[in-house]
């Protein structure tokens, strides 16, 4: 490869190292110059260009990146098209990303022209997540160097995605008088959510006294039935002879390790009864925030059998305590185009999980109020179905069984938000988790807005599609912002970082994306938070 100044009139076939803008000529970096380009450049007064001329045996940046990507075994991964010397690898399934650091280091030390960056080893991934990127630094590179680098990757498991396997999971919880039943119920629902990406399910829950003998009896029974046993103790483990490790030993099992160098997650217990893993969950696993329990659980669901060496090797990178959330760097950045084969698909999230606190003490639920003989939540779901989006998800929580009964028979997905008491952000996250792998945007529709019609939703969807997709679309009334809103994929990472009883307003104001306002009239502001509002809107509250 020859890099340097080339006379513009004799540069045909060269690749521009820098973009050029002159009279009526605009050519970007990486553009291969044609004879016509050269004539136009000379006509515009350009005398020389800085360009790359390929020598025999050179590969241009895209061909080199493509060759290296093809050397990687792509089971459970997919490759992007080569562009600007880059090929990205994305997970194709829910699973665990595994990477051989020594192999990646060897690859990156062959030549500075060739780079490969990956997620950390044993990162949990979802379909569509970027797991690695190959980048060629110059505009061309000798083929023999590319082949040396490809040889490091070929035939080796330098990086792969190991799919999660569905497991039948048993939950055993111990009880003390000071532990609220509602906390235990919430813990079970949160565990079900953690198991969901793997297709695993809880076979049941057993609650016993916080005493080693009672717990040991339960462990024997559950370990015979299930492939994985998870124990939530009513009190934290403080010693290797405490209730949970003592119960594992009394059940005939072995305690692999007590404690781990991950914070939060220090107080985890790992054992086995026969070949069945038993995890004594730390108290932090009652929270949705990432902790050491998630790391151990993911390994088991991916088919690994973690032991003492694995747990004690988690200290580097194990300091999570000061990180309130862990955004995924593989998510598309704000301002970038949606990526992936499902970029054009839009899901409507109908949020129907709230507690309706402003309805007073009557016990009547606004979403079950009838409008023209139809429960409000069903009316909202019907409008979403008629709007023409690719998927409709209804997120339930408070009085979930009644709300779900009201929409029975409709072709919608239902996601139950176990954390609905923590506010709207948890419903947004629950709905997003169900669709983010297959959609490039979500339309957020609040179920308590009876005047939002299917036509209103169609107007929002049409505006989003017309704009090309990477914008925020917001319903307004008289120019004043309202709901619903459409959020593109480039905001998904920000949605996952929301907490508390907040919606999308913060994201809209800080994203840096264009915001398109669509006038839908008073419907954009009209919700029914009180019995008086329900009556004003023509609804009838039911018991």
In brief:
Keywords: Magnesium, Transferase. The chain has 543 residues and is of the alpha/beta class.
Describe the fold and architecture.
Keywords: Magnesium, Transferase. InterPro entries: Bifunc_Mopterin-bd, MoaB/Mog-like_dom_sf, MoaB/Mog_dom, MobA-like_NTP_Trfase, Nucleotide-diphossugar_trans. One of its GO terms (molecular function) is transferase activity. Residues 170-302 form the MoaB/Mog domain. It holds the Pfam family NTP_transf_3. The chain is an alpha/beta fold and 543 residues long. It is built from 16 helices and 29 strands. The chain has a seven-stranded mixed beta sheet, with helices on both faces. It has a six-stranded mixed beta sheet with strand order 16-15-17-20-19-18, with helices on both faces. A hairpin with a 2-residue loop joins strand 27 and strand 28 (480-488). Helix 2 (61-70) runs parallel beside helix 4. The radius of gyration is 28 Å and the shape is flat. The termini are far apart. Residues 322-341 have low confidence and may be disordered.
What do the pLDDT scores average to? 89
How far apart the termini lie comes to: 78 Å
Helix count equals 16
The percentage of residues in β strands lies in 25-35%
Structural class: alpha/beta
What general outline do the C-alpha atoms trace? Answer: flat
Unreliable sequence segments? 322-341
């Amino acid at each position: 490869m020859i890099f340097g100044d080339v006379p513009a009139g004799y540069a045909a076939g060269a690749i521009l190292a820098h973009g050029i803008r002159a009279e009526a000529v605009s050519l970007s970096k990486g553009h291969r110059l044609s004879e016509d380009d050269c004539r136009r450049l000379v006509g515009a007064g350009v005398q020389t260009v800085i360009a790359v001329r390929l020598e025999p045996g050179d590969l241009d940046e895209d061909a080199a990146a493509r060759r290296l990507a093809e050397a990687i075994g792509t089971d459970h991964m997919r490759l992007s098209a080569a562009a600007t010397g880059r090929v990205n690898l994305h997970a194709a399934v829910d699973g665990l990303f595994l990477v051989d650091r020594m192999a990646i280091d060897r690859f990156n030390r062959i030549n500075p022209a060739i780079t490969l960056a990956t997620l950390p080893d044993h990162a949990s991934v979802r379909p569509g997540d970027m797991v690695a990127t190959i980048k060629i630094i110059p505009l061309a590179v000798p083929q023999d160097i590319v082949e040396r680098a490809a040889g490091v990757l070929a035939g080796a498991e330098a990086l792969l995605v190991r799919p999660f396997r569905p497991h039948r999971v048993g939950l055993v919880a111990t009880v003390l008088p000071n532990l609220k039943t509602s906390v235990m119920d919430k813990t079970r629902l949160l565990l079900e959510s953690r198991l969901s990406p793997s297709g695993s399910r809880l076979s049941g829950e057993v609650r016993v006294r916080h005493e080693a003998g009672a717990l040991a009896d339960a462990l024997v029974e559950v370990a015979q039935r299930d492939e994985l046993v998870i124990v939530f103790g009513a009190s934290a483990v403080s010693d290797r002879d405490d209730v949970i490790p003592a119960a594992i030993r009394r059940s005939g099992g072995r305690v692999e390790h007590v404690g781990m160098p991950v914070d939060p997650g220090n107080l985890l217990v790992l054992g086995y009864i026969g070949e069945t893993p038993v995890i004594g969950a730390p108290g932090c696993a009652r929270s949705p925030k990432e902790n050491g329990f998630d790391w151990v659980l993911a390994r088991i669901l991916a088919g690994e059998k973690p032991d003492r060496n694995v747990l004690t090797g988690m200290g580097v990178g194990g300091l999570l305590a000061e990180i309130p959330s862990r955004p995924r760097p593989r998510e598309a950045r704000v301002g970038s185009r949606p990526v992936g084969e499902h970029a054009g698909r839009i899901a409507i999230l109908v949020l129907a999980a709230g507690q309706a606190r402003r309805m007073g003490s009557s016990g009547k639920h606004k979403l079950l109020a009838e409008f023209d003989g139809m429960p409000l939540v069903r009316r909202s779901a019907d409008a979403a179905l008629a709007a023409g989006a690719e998927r409709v998800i209804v997120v339930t929580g408070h009085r979930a069984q009644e709300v779900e009964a009201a929409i029975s028979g409709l072709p919608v997905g239902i996601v139950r938000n176990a954390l609905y008491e923590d506010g709207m952000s948890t419903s947004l996250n629950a709905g997003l988790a169900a669709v983010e792998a297959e959609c490039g945007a979500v339309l957020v529709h609040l179920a308590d807005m009876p005047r939002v019609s299917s036509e209103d939703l169609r107007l929002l969807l049409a505006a989003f599609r017309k704009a090309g997709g990477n914008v925020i679309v917001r319903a307004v009334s008289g120019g004043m912002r309202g709901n619903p809103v459409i959020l593109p994929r480039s905001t998904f990472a920000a949605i996952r970082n929301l907490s508390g009883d907040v919606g999308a307003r913060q994201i809209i104001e800080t994203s840096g994306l264009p915001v398109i306002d669509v006038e839908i009239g008073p419907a954009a502001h009209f919700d029914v938070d009180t019995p008086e509002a329900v009556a004003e809107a023509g609804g009838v509250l039911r018991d």
